[in-house]
Amino acid sequence: MSIMGVSGVPAEHDEASQNIHRGYATLEDRAFQTVVLPDGRRVDYLLLGDPKGRPILYLSAGLGLIRWPARAEAEAANRGMRVIVPLRPGYGGSDPVADDVDYTTALVSDAVHILDAEKVEMCPILSIADDSFFAFEIARTHPKRVRAMIATAARCR
Asked: Which Gene3D superfamilies has this protein been placed in (predicted)?
């Protein structure tokens, strides 16, 4: 069970407040991108760095670390890197998964749909902590989509 499952936060979201991640300190504001899945569920994601650059899928862990330090985001842009950051189901503007849906399967599917929306055939995956498990699952179920994997503080279940 996730924190969203017990928080009492309604599944509906306020469109106006959910479409931009307000930068803090020296971070620039970033507009959320949205993919609507075949089942109608909405999944949001951010693009950091160069929006037309070489893609990297970044799985930010349940810690909600969807943004990088301002200097790191600027460096990603300078190096021509497009960092694709999916929001987990139930967080931000992303709809939660139904109780009878396997969370891991849904999260992997969300990532693949986002890559499809971004027209990414193959890219490296960068993951933090527990999200290494999801990176490994993407590599296991969609091996031709994964160019390389960097799993920081990796953890398997």
From this structure: alpha/beta hydrolase
